[in-house]
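User: I'm putting together notes for a lab meeting next week and I want to include a structural view of one of the chains we've been expressing. I don't have a solved structure, so I'd like a prediction I can at least talk through. The sequence is below, exactly as it appears in our construct file.
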Amino acid sequence: MPPLKLPPDSLDLAQILKASGVKATVQRLEIYRELSGSMQHPDAEAIYRGVRRRIPTVSLDTVYRTLLLFLKLGLVSSLRLPHERIRFDPNLTPHHHLVCTRCGRVQDFTHPDFDALKVPEAAQSWGVIEKMQVEIRGQCERCARQTKPGRSRSLIQTKEEPK
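Assistant: Thanks for the context. Below is the predicted structure for the 163-residue chain, given as structure tokens.
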């Protein structure tokens, strides 16, 4: 089943689930509510903790399976950061990410220059491009203020190529 491509403001989750042949259970609706109410691009465990406050019987397995279902239906997208669990994003409109390499904070942003980027010819010959998104990494303002001189500025370590 191809993913649905609907703007977030037109989503009626219960109707979309039913049209896809999937039950609109209370758990699924609450999992989506928790995700869509977060600006943090949460992982499954963070969503689980939030939903569990309202539905104590929900399982982590149910949250994982539901998020995978939402991905399959095109209701959310995923964000894979190095050394982290998969994080989920309910924002389906074209946008880009600012990623703090120290605390892991992810913030959406748009910019007309990035939005106007064309897929390079070398990438077009690679295969079918589904999405192009810019990811800018650095330290958020809060982490930059807290970094002491001489200390490692990044929690995400990268291996250097041998010379």
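A couple of points you could mention at the meeting. Residues 40 and 87 are 9 Å apart (CA to CA). Confidence is low (pLDDT under 50) at residues 1-10, 152-163.

User: Perfect, that's what I needed.
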